[in-house]
Amino acid sequence: MFSLPDLPYSYDALDKYISKDIMYLHHAKHHQTYVDKLNAAVASAPELQGKSLEDLLTNLNSVPDALRNAVRNHGGGHYNHSMFWQWMSPNGGGEPTGELKAKIIEKYGSFQAFVDEFTTKALAVFGSGWVWLQPNLDILTTANQDNPLMNGDKAPILGLDIWEHAYYLDYKNKRDDYVKAWWNVVNWDFVDNLARKNAT
Predict the structure, then answer these.
(1) CA–CA distance, 5 with 68 (Å, rounded to integer)
(2) Fewer CB near the terminus (10 Å): N or C of the chain?
(3) What is the spatial order of strands in the sheet that 129-133 belongs to?
(4) Which of these, 7, 37, 2, lies nearest to 23 by C-alpha position?
(5) Is domain 20-86 given the CATH code 1.10.287.990 in the classification?
(6) Is there a contact between 136 and 103 (Cβ–Cβ < 8 Å)?
(7) Are the C-beta atoms of residues 34 and 78 closer than 8 Å to each other?
(8) Could you tell me which residues come within 8 angstroms of residue 126 by beta carbon, excluding any fewer than 6 positions away?
(9) Structural domain boundaries of the chain?
(10) Distance (Å, whole) CA 52 – CA 104
(11) Looking only at Cα atoms, what is the longest distance across the chain?
């Protein structure tokens, strides 16, 4: 059975940029629902029980047809959000350092150019979805709760939730204001750790 992970900080820790109300609703309600519905789907298929979340998402074709959408949507939602909480920190923001920063500058010309490209792609997603930074520093987007694992790509090192439930209480329909604020809480230490892990 999958379970809701604890936040690595309090609900009000990001309050300057993302309110306590949003964090509570997003984590305790939306994420919990993904976990509950994923568990219900897996419980009805003995052949899926005991498999890791990553195994399920990277092998969706092995999931029974009747359950595939549930595992895709709710398993994706569980994976994406479990990572998302770690990609933010009350001590976040600023810029990465060391090799990660050097590689970003090498690929994009400057850190600001990378931020601009990532932001542009976030604002261009129609409806709900995610924006991802891959280990090779490509920027990808997916719809709904899809993620790169489902497409045979490596696990992302950074991701941004651009579903309205992630920001609507604070920013209404201003996705651009939300994305701009989110850069102030990005946990670059965690991103750097994922980048290093992928390089080994």
Answers:
(1) 23
(2) C
(3) 139-143, 129-133, 158-161
(4) 7
(5) yes
(6) no
(7) yes
(8) none
(9) 20-86, 98-199
(10) 31
(11) 50
Amino acid occupying residue 137: L
Tokens of 4: 């809701």
Task: Name the DSSP class of 148.
Answer: G
Positive or negative: CA dihedral 7, 13, 18, 20: positive
d(CA 76, CA 42): 13
Q: In sequence order, what are the residues at sequence separation of 6 or more whose Cβ sits closer than 8 angstroms to the Cβ of residue 102?
A: none
Cβ neighbors of 187 (< 8 A, separation 6 or more) are: 86, 87, 88, 89, 91, 92
Looking at residue 200, what is its pLDDT?
57
Q: At the topology level of CATH, where does 98-199 sit?
A: minor pseudopilin epsh fold (3.55.40)
Q: What is the pLDDT along the chain (200 residues), one digit of tens a residue?
A: 999 999 999 999 999 999 999 999 999 999 999 999 999 999 999 999 999 999 999 999 999 999 999 999 999 999 999 999 999 999 999 999 999 999 999 999 999 999 999 999 999 999 999 999 999 999 999 999 999 999 999 999 999 999 999 999 999 999 999 999 999 999 999 999 999 998 75
CB 105 within 8 A of CB 137: no
pLDDT of residue 198: 85
Strands 129-133, 139-143: parallel, antiparallel or unpaired by DSSP? Answer: antiparallel
